[in-house]
Amino acid sequence: MRLYHHPISSNARRVVMTAHHLGLPLDLVLLDLSSADQRKHLLAINPNEKIPVLVDGDFILWESCAIMQYLADKTPGQSVYPAELRARADVNRWMFWSAQHFAPMIAIFYWENFIKGLIGAGRPDPVELQRALTDLEKYAGVLDGHLAQRRWVSGSGLTLADLAIAAPLMAVEPGRVPLAPYTHLQAWFSRVQELDAWRQTELEEELLIA
Ligand SMILES: N[C@@H](CCC(=O)N[C@@H](CS)C(=O)NCC(=O)O)C(=O)O
């Protein structure tokens, strides 16, 4: 299986972490979003022109959370995406929450405080940062409260929900996301950062950027 990705994309990283955790070999293809030629190729496999994109034989799949679920469903005996109806619905709930609320809010900090400077797109916009802060207070508050009495987001062990929600947090330092008040969230994130899947993708990220 081939995955088109870029190391600064947290949407790609949540897929790469999932593959590592499941022990599935992925052929990683670095896609340079600043190259017109490479974007043309991307458009041919994803009409939204976004990474990640998985190619599994003649099957092409885009949308990071859908790819994570596909990889888990392909893996016999896996425990990160439960088969039981309500357990699966709960994992789905948090994955949608991440895609709809949590990740887009973190992405504003990442874009304004880090990516803009990297690509020369101007100074951080204070109005956008205030909007992100308002959303952070709401959604980080929700997650922090949820994690007050639990080690993992859904059920009693690691699931795709943890990997989906944690990936955008790779932006916490470069994006200067003010997470200090959310102590349960931070403790959970430290647990995720101890996973091989997190460490190995961090290493790849450093190697690819170097
Ligand atoms: N909902 C999509 C979002 C994908 C996405 O926004 N990818 C970004 C990188 S993190 C991208 O390819 N951006 C390129 C662009 O918009 O030009 C997913 O979860 O896969």
General description of the model:
Residues 1-79 form the GST N-terminal domain. This is Glutathione S-transferase family protein. Residues 84-210 form the GST C-terminal domain. It comes from Collimonas rhizosphaerae. The chain is an alpha+beta fold and 210 residues long. It has helices spanning 10-22, 36-45, 64-73, 85-119, 126-146, 160-166, 183-193, 196-209, and strands at 2-5, 27-30, 53-56, 59-62. A four-stranded mixed beta sheet has the order 2-1-3-4, with helices on one face. The protein starts with a strand and ends with a helix. The model has no long low-confidence stretch (mean pLDDT 95). Glutathione (GSH) binds at residues 9, 11, 33, 49-52, 63-64, 99.
What descriptors fit this protein?
four-stranded mixed beta sheet; 210 residues; binds glutathione; globular; single chain; alpha+beta
Low-confidence parts:
none
Task: Tell me, rounded to a whole number, the average pLDDT.
Answer: 95
Task: Characterize the quaternary organization of these chains.
Answer: single chain
The share of residues in extended strands comes to 5-15%
Total of DSSP H or I helical runs spanning 4+ residues: 8
Q: Which small molecules are bound?
A: glutathione
Structural class: alpha+beta
How many whole angstroms does the radius of gyration measure?
17 Å
Strand runs, count:
4
N-C termini distance: 25 Å
Largest sheet: 4 strands, mixed
Morphology: globular
